[in-house]
What does this fold into?
Amino acid sequence: MVDLLQSAGNNQRLLAVGDIHGCREALRELLGRVAPTEHDQLVFLGDYIDRGPDSTGVVEDLLALRERLPCTVFLRGNHEQMLLEVLAGASPLNFLLNGGGQTIASYRKSSGWPPSLKHRTFFASLLPLYSNGSFIFVHAGLRPGIPLAEQSPADLLWIREDFLAVKADWGKTIVFGHTPREQPLLTPDRIGLDTGCVYGGRLTCCDVLTRRVWQVSCNKSGLGAGD
It folds into this structure.
């Protein structure tokens, strides 16, 4: 696995955002509340597409955010991985069973299917994990007993109970999404930020340095609704 670990900088806030799943209005409302600046480090935990109404718009907004804040980190989720596999010629069945039909519809409604080169380049550039100071950011989690540099790419994207149910010490706090929960998980060694936005839950951002949390409530159409 390519070494993508980076050292901590002197950032004002270290902000992580959970799974978005095509909920563009919720993303916009959340970012408006958090108001990230060039002094912050912003990390998105993956799953920007599928299930929600506007995957295309989410990606457009993330690309615009990267233009404004070029140090923003974007991780790859299992949904982006499924899309990349379909674009490379794999069977679309798994993608469609996991909300890919909504993503295809979103692209057909706007820029057309398949996604533009700009969007495909964005998907291909997403990182498997990111380390900053005493935190490791990953989409799904890590497999206990395996050194960080030897973690399976599939586990980084898909692991659930084998990570969640086992106490393990990687020497850093693991910040992750992927597994929906009603409230953020905030423990000394783990921070879980998928709070089921697209299922009628909330989209969550956390400053992992202070544990301050911002949330936007969402209805099942993926639209933002202020708390």
Observations:
- DSSP finds seven helices and eleven strands in the chain.
- The chain has a mean pLDDT of 92.
- The radius of gyration is 16 Å.
